């Protein structure tokens, strides 16, 4: 796996945002910890939040007939989350090409900052005809912006 732990700080590349998500009882398994599949839904919340923070709401992408289809998902689970916890999903754009976008994530316990999981997803842009296509140039420009993740990017859904 080519992703790892990263931290946002002053002077970082800021194509990133943080969203907090309360852990629901339905997301836990019989042992009382969050089921591993719940993390993929949280990653989606993080991606959608980041796109919104950058000024490209996913509703706009879909309304134009496009989608960013997941082609790869990798995750490392490092510590458990439990019902009642609040997790923070830190999402950043790690790579952007003409048709591909890569997101990286750190999922932390919002109260303690403990790293619970790190993940990476790759997406291909699919156009109105249903085939892989280039990300529209004006969207690529938005996705390259360096001012997301500043004031106002931290929220709850």
Describe the structure.
- The structure is a single chain.
- By secondary structure, the protein is of the alpha+beta class.
- The chain has a single domain (16-148), classed as Hotdog Thioesterase (Thiol Ester Dehydrase, Chain A, Roll).
- The chain has helices spanning 38-54, 58-63, 137-143; strands at 16-22, 67-77, 86-96, 100-109, 115-126, 154-155.
- Strand 4 (100-109) and strand 5 (115-126) form a beta hairpin.
- It is elongated, with a radius of gyration of 16 Å.
- The model is unreliable at 1-13 and 148-157 (pLDDT under 50).
Task: Briefly summarize what is shown.
The chain has helices at 38-54, 58-63, 137-143; strands spanning 16-22, 67-77, 86-96, 100-109, 115-126, 154-155. With 157 residues, it is α+β, with helices and mostly antiparallel strands.
């Amino acid at each position: 796996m080519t992703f790892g732990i990263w931290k946002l700080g002053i002077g970082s590349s800021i194509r990133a945002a943080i969203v907090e998500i309360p852990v629901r009882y339905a997301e836990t398994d019989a042992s009382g910890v969050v089921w591993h599949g719940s993390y993929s839904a949280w990653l989606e919340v993080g991606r959608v939040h980041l796109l919104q923070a950058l000024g490209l709401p996913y509703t706009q992408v879909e309304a134009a007939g496009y989608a960013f289809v997941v082609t790869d998902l990798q995750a490392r689970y490092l510590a458990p989350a439990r019902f009642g916890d609040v997790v923070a999903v830190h999402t950043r754009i790690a790579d952007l090409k003409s048709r591909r976008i890569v997101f990286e994530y750190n999922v932390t316990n919002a109260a303690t900052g403990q790293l619970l999981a790190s993940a990476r997803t790759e997406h291909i842009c699919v156009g109105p005809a249903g085939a892989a296509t280039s990300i529209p140039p004006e969207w690529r420009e938005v996705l390259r912006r360096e001012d997301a993740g500043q004031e106002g990017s931290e929220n709850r859904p």
